[in-house]
Each structure stands twice: as structure tokens, then as C-alpha cells.
Amino acid sequence: APKDAVVLSTDDYLQAKADEAGTTYDAVFSSMIQSATVHMERSKREAISNSLSVVWDQTNLTRSARKRKLLGFDNYHKVAVVFDIPERDELRKRLASRPGKNIPDDVIESMISQFQIPTTKEGFDEVIYP
Fold first, then answer.
1. Three-class SS of residue 94?
2. Cβ-contact 12, 57 below 8 angstroms
3. Could you tell me which of 3, 50, 96, 104 has the fewest CB atoms within 10 Å of its CB?
């Protein structure tokens, strides 16, 4: 992605707010997720209106979720980047390395079961597997 790409990420916003408050991601999540989403949507609109490159850094598990996110990007070259789902032990290890950001096992399992592999039929120009 270009160096000047706009990164759309609720996680980055939440972590920045947690850092400002001297607390954790988990501590600010409930009270700040709505403003994080509003901020991300505003950044999306500004990026599109200024024809800037965009990296959407968010877990988008389903076709319907991705369809909503692709709205407004008609004139863009759209690339889905699909990462392998790590083994459970590796997932636990990665999560353990992020103090203050906890995702319960049942949520992880639900996310894995909901995942639909992106395709070009849903609007992407490319689907890559790094």
C-alpha cells in the first residue's frame, strides 16, 4: 500500500484512546466503540472524496459485512487480503502477547465459524493470500 494510504481501523482508534487515558483497550472498548466507528466512517468518506488509497484494517468475516464496507469504492482497485486461520495454540499465544486486549474463546470460535472466504464475485478485483 502507498505510504500515504488512509488506514481505516477501529482498533487503532481504540488503542490510541486507551493510551491517552493510560488504560487498556478492553477498558475503553464499550464506551468508545461507537465513536471509533463514527471516526472510521468519517475517515472513509474523506479518503474517497480526496481519491486517497485506503487500507481497511478490520476483520470482515462475511460477504454482507464486506459488501457494506465496499460501498463508495466503485472507482477503486479493490484487493482482499486473506490470512490463514492460525491453529488454536497459536491464536492463544498471539492473544496472550496483547495485554489488555482479550477476546474470549467463544468469540474466536464464533468468528471462525462465520468466516466466508472473499471472492471476486462479491466486488473485489483481486483476492490474495500472503
1. helix
2. yes
3. 3
